[in-house]
Design a protein that fits this description.
- With 394 residues, the protein is of the alpha+beta class.
- Among the domains are: 128 residues, no CATH class; 135 residues, no CATH class.
- It has 15 helices and 11 strands.
- The strands form 3 sheets. Strands 1-4-5-6 form a 4-stranded antiparallel β-sheet, with no helix packed on it. Strands 8, 9, 10 and 11 form a 4-stranded mixed β-sheet that branches. Strands 2-3-7 form a 3-stranded antiparallel β-sheet.
- Strand 5 and strand 6 form a beta hairpin.
- The longest helix is centred in the C-terminal third of the chain and has 23 residues.
- The radius of gyration is 22 Å and the shape is globular.
């Protein structure tokens, strides 16, 4: 069975929520008094992390972010709230949806009645709008964001791929309409799997933004805790989305698992790996490499199950096998070479050892497949067409 550190995850999520809870209280006590402040779910809203990590707090207000979490009985009648529309001319309110007011980047006043009717004003002028409900993955509370919110933009510079690291000319395109069905299929498959990982993954993942951009990688970031940013192509399959939900959601899960760095690391977690392994080509930090071990294990877990369950046939099975082998080469890429007694606490080493041993057990089963496959033409991101070119009989 795969290690999932569920108790550590729950404790870490609670500690993260407590930190955000305090920030909300300090910034707006009146708003805080209207919330169910013992409910951690409220304080794990991803846009709270985006808000508190922004230097410019005028792009979105706390009231706008948290309105959807306030019970009707707690709202004064005709209560005015300052809101801001996004670059698409929509006022976004988490848990509720999008109000298309047709005015981009505009500061407006929203009056909310207890019966939850909404009226927008620009000065004294009442603004007409079209309401678009928030989209969630089937049987979940995981929101699928339809467009590139301006608060996302500050995150992208940290996840430019190697070719484009020195330039920031992004031509990002949302894949919302194209990917929604495949995202639902992927999430349903993981949720129905019965894997231990499905519980923390579905709890930790609060939002997904799927997009296309040749300059970016998929990522997750503490500054948007709970959101999986999935960079792909219109042609990507459900297998791709199974991998990416497991991978990017894994970063959120693991951030909670190792929330208290001092209990995990003896060394500075941001020590360059090259200083610990004498590999000058390794550009990762210790923290990043440890995250990579966890996400590699989680991708292996879902792909191993997908193969064992014999759910996917034909081209999808071929892609599954290719990604399974590709993921194997992300194991033992440096962490195994360092002096663990100087790097990890006993707790940290326990986590490292459990993940490393799990991956070894999983891939022992696939040694014949690994030996048959040629991945010499692959880049960092797996490419199915390249895989098929060198492995026509797999």
């Amino acid at each position: 069975m795969a290690p999932n550190f569920l108790n550590d995850f729950k404790k870490g999520q609670s500690e993260i929520a407590s930190a955000i809870r305090l920030l909300v209280l300090q910034e707006n006590e009146n708003l805080f008094s209207k919330l169910d402040f013992v409910n951690d779910d409220i304080f794990l809203e991803p846009f709270l992390f985006l808000y508190f990590n922004q230097k410019d707090k005028t792009k979105l207000t706390l009231w706008q972010i948290l309105l959807g979490y306030i019970k009707k009985s707690k709202l004064p009648n005709d209560f005015p709230i300052d809101v801001t529309s996004n670059n698409n001319g929509q006022v976004y309110i988490p848990k509720i949806g999008y109000f298309d007011v047709g005015k981009a980047d505009k500061k407006l006043t929203l009056q909310v009645e207890r019966k939850k009717t909404y009226n927008f004003y620009c000065g004294s002028e009442k603004i007409a709008y079209k309401f678009i409900p928030a989209t969630v993955l089937n049987s979940s509370s995981i929101e699928v964001y339809p467009s590139n919110d301006r608060l996302f933009k500050s995150l992208y510079s940290g996840f430019l791929n190697e070719v484009h690291k020195k330039q920031m000319s992004l031509s990002l395109k949302s894949l919302y309409g194209i990917s929604l069905g495949k995202l639902n299929h992927a999430y349903k498959f993981i949720k129905a799997s019965g894997l231990n990982y499905s519980t923390p993954l579905s709890t930790a993942t609060r939002g997904v933004f799927s997009f296309e951009d040749k300059n970016l990688w998929s990522f997750a970031d503490k500054a948007a805790h709970g959101i999986s940013f999935i960079c792909g192509k219109p042609t990507d399959s459900v297998i791709f989305f199974i991998c990416e939900l497991a991978h990017q959601g894994g970063h959120t899960v693991f951030n909670a698992v190792i929330q208290n760095n001092e209990k995990i690391f003896l060394a500075d977690p941001y020590t360059p790996m090259k200083m610990l392994t004498d590999n000058e080509k390794d550009e990762r930090s210790l923290f990043g490499a440890f995250h990579g071990l966890f996400t590699t294990a989680k991708v292996a877990e879902v792909l191993d199950y997908a193969y064992s369950s014999n759910t996917f046939k034909g081209e999808l099975k071929r892609e599954l096998l290719g990604r399974l082998v590709d993921n194997h080469y992300r194991h033992r890429t440096g962490l195994e070479k360092m002096n663990h007694k100087k790097v990890f606490t006993p707790k940290g080493f326990e986590i490292y050892s459990a993940l490393d041993k799990y991956l070894y057990r999983v891939y022992t089963k696939y040694q014949n497949l690994i030996k048959q496959c040629d991945l010499t033409n692959q880049d960092f991101v797996f490419d199915l067409e390249k895989f098929k070119k060198l492995n026509p009989f797999i």
